[in-house]
């Protein structure tokens, strides 16, 4: 233990960082019981101790998959003793080529005891503020056992570790982490909440599915609905019958609801706004409909109202891509029930398909994962790690978790939910969506009208992030520049693994209408990089391991973009998910021609699918952990909390509950 205590006493190591086992807590206690005079005496003796025989432990840490070196990892060398006890021998940091050299005193392993070597590999520590006290938590990522009874220097050679490795299975779609290479888990409280939510609603869902398998006529859709908590459209309908099915509500949800639309301007009448979906490129399962739609909206008194819906269904129930199509049908508010049905058909795709797969999974989860993997693999010394880590730290975890419970081909909900229309082409669609996203010149959409609360709040928050990021860069400029090589590798890897740029995603067609605003639409003239004949969607942040002014500006923009997507955009998706997806008659996926009144069960997706839709919606949106103001983990920068809190009145005036602003993408 002497070397371990020596490090504590000489301030080379902090007890708090080690106080994670009973053994170390015991050491902590023993030291705390010693009188100060004894401690000072021991410290003096240890300082005067002459190390006259030094050995060296050397090695090189590389990625398993690629053998690429991993620099800037902290390595500790320990001697394993009996009963799990260990003696600290020394520490080092991996260099640019992943190599390390740790000098150690053989006597540190104890009298008459040759060292039984063990390496501990650490990610950068997490710095948190808890009850006003700064706490540094070590992040152990790997333990590597070396040989016993080493009587001299020892070379570990090349050591491969599974460290945020890319999953080759998904490489043709998008960058994804191999589960076993993800080095940290959710924080325990977040994991507990996640599992509780999944268990609670999963049980309800399973009971419905079992009942339905025993008797295909049971339970009724009404019973299924009643098995879950009431959500906002149900509550609103009780207060204001007909309101949630009104044109006013439809327009407001398209502007401010789950999956808020970026509208286009009608090419024939620039006073009208449009949104459309084209499902012809998708191969379907045949269980639900995926008609093409186009909705035209009129602006009246600063509100958007739908005035025309055109639907076009597949002919002969074709499930192939590029199917034969029926003639299109156009509906207007004068069409009574048909108008209500047409709005519901649009909602089904807008919420359940576009909202889930594009706005949520693609723009939030998979878009952010590529940045998260690259950050975790490359940025350790740069202060940018501390700026982004609180927001990106659990993206790979939730995606891994989501892949298991949603996307697993055998047991995932999407597999159980046969009607989920995108099973065959879902990954391809996600890839195409990712091909349209990039950080360059991105900023929140301009408000289209006075009731465009989503855009107003987004711009207010973007202003806060600009101040936050600018001030962080001003405070940390020198360190950011000094460690620019990490940013260069971060950027290079993003590009290498980026999907191909696509001008139109799978559901988009060029109908001649123009976007009303290009802020969130990729339109930068900055060049893209071509890799192996593929023009990559993500543009470089920097092209050098030395930063210039433009590089710094680019990195600031990347930081704002990532924090915005992980916090505000993802908060909106979650806050508005259940309010719209939680009522079957309002927003469920539809089948058998889709055009039916709400009581016409022939167009409903089936009881099993209905229960899975509601079960998944509730369980996925009830992960209530990780908010900026609550700052549960103590790692959200104080400056960001201050800035957000200082605008509380403005957020509230726009109807946004600041307590619902998430700090990270973990759900
Ligand atoms: Fe999410």
Tally of helical runs: 20
Task: Outline the low-pLDDT stretches.
Answer: 47-52, 418-422
Please state the second-level CATH architecture of the largest domain: Up-down Bundle
Q: How many β-strand stretches?
A: 15
* CATH homology-level superfamily of the largest domain: Lipoxygenase-1, Domain 5
Bound molecules: fe (ii) ion
Total domain count: 2
Helix content: 40-55%
- Which whole number gives the mean pLDDT? 88
Q: For the record, what CATH class of the largest domain applies?
A: Mainly Alpha
Main β-sheet, spatial strand arrangement:
12-11-10-9-8-13
Largest sheet: 6 strands, antiparallel
List strands and helices in order, with pairings.
Blueprint: H1 2-9, H2 15-18, H3 22-33, H4 36-48, E1 55-63, E2 74-80, E3 86-93, E4 99-104, E5 117-130, E6 133-145, E7 154-161, H5 188-214, H6 221-226, H7 232-239, H8 247-256, E8 264-265, E9 272-277, E10 292-300, E11 303-312, E12 329-331, H9 337-378, H10 384-392, H11 395-407, H12 413-416, H13 426-434, H14 453-482, H15 484-497, E13 514-515, E14 530-531, E15 534-535, H16 549-581, H17 584-587, H18 607-621, H19 638-646, H20 648-653
Parallel strand pairs: 1-7
Antiparallel strand pairs: 1-4, 2-3, 2-5, 5-6, 8-9, 8-13, 9-10, 10-11, 11-12, 14-15
Helix pairs in contact: 5-18, 9-10, 9-11, 9-13, 9-15, 9-16, 10-16, 14-16, 14-19, 16-18
The structure holds fe (ii) ion.
Residues 360, 364-365, 570, 667 line the site of fe (ii) ion.
């Amino acid at each position: 233990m002497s070397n371990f205590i020596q490090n504590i006493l000489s301030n080379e190591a902090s007890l708090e960082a080690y106080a994670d086992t009973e053994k170390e807590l015991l050491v902590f206690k023993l030291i705390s019981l010693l009188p100060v005079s004894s401690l000072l005496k021991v410290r003096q003796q240890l300082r005067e101790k002459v190390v006259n025989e030094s050995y060296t432990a050397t090695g090189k840490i590389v990625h398993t998959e690629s053998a690429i070196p991993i620099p800037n990892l902290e390595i500790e060398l320990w001697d394993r003793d009996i009963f799990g006890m260990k003696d600290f021998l020394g520490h080092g940091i991996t260099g640019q080529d992943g190599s390390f050299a740790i000098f150690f005193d053989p006597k540190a392993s104890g009298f008459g005891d040759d060292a039984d070597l063990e390496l501990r590999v650490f990610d950068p520590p997490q710095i948190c503020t808890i009850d006003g006290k700064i706490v540094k938590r070590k992040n152990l990522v790997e333990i590597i056992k070396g040989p016993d009874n080493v009587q001299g220097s020892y070379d570990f050679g090349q050591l491969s570790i599974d460290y945020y490795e890319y999953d080759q299975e998904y490489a043709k779609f998008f960058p994804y982490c191999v589960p076993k290479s993800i080095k940290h888990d959710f924080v325990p409280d977040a994991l507990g909440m996640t599992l509780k939510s999944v268990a609670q609603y999963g049980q309800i869902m399973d009971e419905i599915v079992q009942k339905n398998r025993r008797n295909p006529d049971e339970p009724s859709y009404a019973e299924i609905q009643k098995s879950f908590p009431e959500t906002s459209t149900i509550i609103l309908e009780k207060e204001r019958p007909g309101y949630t099915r009104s044109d006013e509500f439809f327009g407001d949800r398209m502007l401010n609801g789950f999956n808020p639309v970026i509208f286009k301007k009608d090419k024939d009448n620039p006073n009208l706004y449009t949104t459309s979906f084209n499902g012809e490129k998708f191969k379907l399962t045949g269980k639900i409909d995926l008609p093409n739609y186009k909705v035209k909206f009129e602006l009246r008194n600063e509100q958007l109202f739908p005035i025309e819906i055109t639907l076009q269904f597949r002919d002969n129930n074709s499930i192939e891509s590029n199917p034969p199509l029926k003639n299109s049908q156009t509906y207007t508010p004068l069409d009574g029930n048909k108008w209500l049905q047409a709005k519901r058909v649009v909602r089904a795709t807008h919420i359940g398909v576009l909202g889930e797969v594009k706005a949520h999974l693609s723009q939030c989860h998979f878009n952010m994962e590529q940045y998260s993997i690259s950050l975790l693999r490359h940025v350790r010394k740069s202060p940018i790690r501390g700026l982004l880590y609180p927001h990106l730290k659990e993206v790979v975890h939730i995606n891994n978790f989501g892949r298991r419970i949603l996307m697993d081909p055998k047991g995932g909900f999407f597999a159980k939910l046969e009607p989920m229309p995108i099973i065959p082409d879902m990954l391809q669609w996600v890839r195409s969506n990712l091909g349209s996203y990039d950080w360059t010149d991105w900023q929140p959409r301009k408000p289209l009208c006075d009731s465009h609360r989503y855009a107003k709040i987004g711009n207010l928050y973007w202003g806060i992030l600009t101040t936050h990021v600018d001030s962080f860069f001003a405070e940390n400029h020198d360190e950011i520049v000094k460690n620019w090589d990490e940013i260069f590798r971060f950027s290079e890897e993003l590009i290498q693994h980026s999907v191909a740029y696509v001008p139109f995603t799978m559901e988009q067609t060029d109908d001649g209408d123009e976007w009303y605003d290009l802020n969130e639409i990729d339109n930068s003239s900055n060049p893209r990089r071509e890799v192996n004949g593929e023009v990559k969607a993500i543009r470089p942040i920097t092209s050098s391991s030395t930063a210039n002014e433009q590089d710094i500006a680019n990195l600031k923009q990347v930081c704002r973009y990532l924090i915005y997507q992980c916090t505000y955009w993802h908060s909106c998706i979650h806050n508005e998910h259940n309010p719209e997806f939680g009522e079957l008659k309002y927003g469920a996926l539809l089948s058998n021609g889709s055009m039916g009144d709400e009581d016409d069960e022939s167009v409903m997706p089936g009881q099993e699918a209905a229960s899975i839709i509601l079960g998944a919606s509730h369980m996925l949106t009830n992960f209530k952990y990780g908010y900026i103001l609550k700052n549960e983990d103590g790692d959200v920068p104080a400056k960001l909390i201050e800035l957000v809190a200082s605008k509380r009145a403005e957020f509230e005036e726009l109807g946004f509950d600041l307590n619902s602003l998430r700090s990270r993408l973990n759900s």
